[in-house]
Amino acid sequence: MKKLLFALILTSLLSIQYFAQTMPQGADPAIWKKAMALQKKALIVDGHNDITTPMYDDGFDLASDSRGKYHSEGTPFHTDFTRLKAGNITGVFFSIYVDRLFAEKGGAAVRAMDLIDSVYREAEKNPNNMMMATSAADIRKAQAQGKVAALMGIEGGHAIEDSLFALRIFYRLGVRYMTLTHNNTNHWADACCDEKPYGGLNDFGLEVIREMNRLGMLIDISHVSDDTMRDVFENSKAPVIYSHSSSRKFSDHPRNVPDDILKMLAKNGGVIMVNFYPGFLDQRNLDEDNAREKTFAKEIAEINEKYKDDRPGQQQAMRDLYAAHPIYYPPYTRIVDHIDHIRDVAGIDVIGIGSDYDGVPSLPVGMNGAEDHVLITYEMFRRGYSEQDILKILGGNFMRVFEKVEKVANTVSRKISGEGSQVKLN
Question: Which of 96, 142, 310, 322 pairs with 241 at a CA distance of 20 to 30 A?
């Protein structure tokens, strides 16, 4: 279950109510016009979108209007075709998010396949709006056709169930990145937010890295521990990605990336796709959120018990509780603060966008969903970024990395230890 399952959804209360076509109050009209023009022509890739889970669990159709609606878990929708097109987002990595519960009780690989199938079925239902994509060339083809390029990334390496065979099958099914862990440590890699028995990657973890390089699968190190990040940089022959992470400078959360590792990313030639979650963007939000959960732990437990058989009632009670005790939420400009800092530490060529739409309980003030993507473009222009640099951040840097990973796959050695059989773990 994603963090803050019962978090208050303050989007409607905190956000300025406008969509991408409307200039925000106080904006410079000349800069806004410039931003809108660039947004319309840019090739934009979002590294992480969790809409896949409600697509499968709730039967949500991207062709429907999601504005003002909530997932079954109580979080607001951020994504549908209309909203994606309003933001001109072409490449979308649909997250194949496998909850740690599937690692504990079994069925992780099947859960991943169910989610993969839901993406294919969505593309089949909506051929005029969406096409499956497995390469950089496919993303460009989708842009030319005015469609959403549906890419897939596994979130949680436990989905392969410790099998290189399963990893290869997922690649054949179209998966083009794998987040090595979620918040939980698996049998071969330490996670950000769990015990760290390996000091990074163990021997099988190194096998996974080599096989991903051989296949041409992007190695995603969002959610992993700092030592796992370092091991990946030392062993990968291809550039790596953070599909949805931000800078630790503004929020000291282990999901974020410290400066010394950002410098390693620059040497690797990879990309960090900045996350929009307020707790990762801003320390004050993170602290106040944690304090509120602690302060109202008794009330939360009582609500959970009272409404244990009434999920909608439970969600509404949590929203009511938190509405009575609001916390600070940063504005959308905080996203560009992270971009500024990453640029200063590691350079303009390592930055991308990984929104985490539909995987987070709230967005920064001023953002409602995918339709508001242009706000980032506007703020970068306002701060003096060049058109060339903005195009890199919106998608160009990721495309370069994706193409490089594809090239490495064509040259790296195919002699992989244990290929064709399951490697035994300690």
Answer: 142
Instruction: Classify residue 112 as left (phi > 0), alpha (psi -120 to 50) or beta.
Output: alpha
Instruction: Please tell me the pTM assigned to this model.
Output: 0.91
For 359-390, the pLDDT digits (tens) are 999 999 999 999 999 999 999 999 999 999 99
Where along the chain do its domains lie?
11-282+329-411
CATH for the stretch 11-282+329-411: 3.20.20.140
